[in-house]
Specification:
11 strands; 7-stranded mixed β-sheet
Length: 124
């Protein structure tokens, strides 16, 4: 059974930084993508940042480019999200997820394994 556990969320003022971690355990197969997603109250879940674990390629949603950095430790046991210059609109529950199925890293439906989420709140 694959388990993902996020940590590092919290409350910060606009302009501040937070670092999220996701510990991965119980996996038997290599992932194809690892990613961070977020969901704010009343909004749909959106992808934030992903890593193609085959190529090492990283992708970011436009709203976080230049502010957030995704990284991972080998062998894919820990995923990180460094968030700088945080804005109130970054407030959401953040989830890490693991995709062993496809190379469509931004497609949430292809991620079979999800963490329980960690809350990030940014005040103006």
């Amino acid at each position: 059974q694959v388990h993902l556990v996020e940590s590092g969320g919290g409350s910060v003022q606009a302009g501040g930084s937070l670092s999220l971690s996701c510990a991965v355990s119980g996996h038997r197969f290599s992932s194809r993508c690892m990613g961070w997603f977020r969901q704010a109250p009343g909004k749909e879940r959106e992808w934030v940042a992903t890593i193609n674990t085959g190529t090492g390629g990283k992708s970011y949603v436009d709203s976080v480019k230049g502010r957030f950095t995704i990284s991972q430790e080998n062998p894919q046991t820990t995923l990180y999200l460094q968030m700088n210059s945080l804005k109130p609109e970054d407030t959401a529950m953040y989830y890490c997820a693991r995709n062993e199925r496809s190379w469509a890293c931004a497609t949430a439906d292809d991620y079979a394994y999800w963490g329980q989420g960690t809350q990030v709140t940014v005040s103006a």
